[in-house]
Amino acid sequence: MNDTRDIIEVLHEKDLKQFLEELGKYNDFENDRLLCKFCKESVSMNNIYGIFIIENDIELVCDNDMCYNKYLIERGEN
Asked: Scanning 26, 34, 36, 75, which has its CA 20 to 30 A from the CA of 42?
């Protein structure tokens, strides 16, 4: 399998702020301007499932079951 995505296996919530600051996305995250890739709802500390780096940008997935399942289908894991 030839996958060109960067993978971060685990990111502890205490490191999330620094990670997003390094990407220049923390202000958007704090102001509810980062949206779930699937449902387009705002992603926050209360509902974040995952962060994925795709083509030098980030995509977020919320913890909604529908979004999680769509993520698994997209990755071919369901």
From this structure: 75
